[in-house]
Amino acid sequence: MRTRQDEFPPRDAAKYYVHDLSKLLEMAALQSAFDQEAVQKPFFRTNWAVVKDWTEQSRYQARSEQDAKEIFAAIDNPANGVLQWLKRNW
């Protein structure tokens, strides 16, 4: 779902307040773009697999330094990062 800065939230807005990236992908109507990117770029698909299970609870779990570096790289990679893909598509 795409909203403009001054729009009121929809009545069912509570369903959008989740940290389930797969659900958010679907709600934002990005599933088709995601599928295409995942087929064309295996490294993007790998990066998505690293970050897709993150939840608001997982931020409190102890992680190794290596795990933290992997998550950061999967999000921030300039060519195949999840954040860069989101910026281009949403």
- The unreliable regions are none
Measured by DSSP, the beta-strand proportion falls in under 5%
Largest sheet: none
SS summary, helix count: 5
Question: How many angstroms separate the termini?
Answer: 9 Å
- Which word captures the global form? globular
Structural category is: mainly alpha
Sketch the topology as an H/E string, one letter per element: HHHHH
Helix content: 40-55%
Based on CA atoms alone, the radius of gyration comes out at 14 Å
The count of strands amounts to 0
Summed up, the domain count is 1
> What integer is the average pLDDT?
88
Describe the model.
- It is a single chain.
- The chain contains five helices and no strands.
- The chain has one domain (13-89).
- By secondary structure, the chain is mainly α.
- The mean pLDDT is 88.
- It is globular, with a radius of gyration of 14 Å.
